[in-house]
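Structure ticket #2291
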Amino acid sequence: MIVKPKIEWFTFNKLRTPYVYWKNVIVVLENPSKTLVVDVWRNQLSSYKPPREAERFKFTYRVGKVDEENEGYLECIAQELEKKLKPLLVKDFKCEDITVVLNC
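Resolution: structure written out below.
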């Protein structure tokens, strides 16, 4: 199956309103020189905690809202983003038989 998600990106330094109420998002933590981690968050963003390894870095949040029809494939989209961004901390996303085409 081929998935072509539409992702709307938002960048900010701290989690604040209205972002804290979002669910089913892709979270990318990055600093000016490197992408730290690509993560999937399905609960309210207010309860998101960065991985312990990333806490020692100063970073910004880049949060991607995926269109509703592709929210079920967040892990597959994050896996493809991870391949493109090559983050410092790699997560193991389980995704099989789905090809993701990104427009970024």
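Closing remark: The mean pLDDT is 94.
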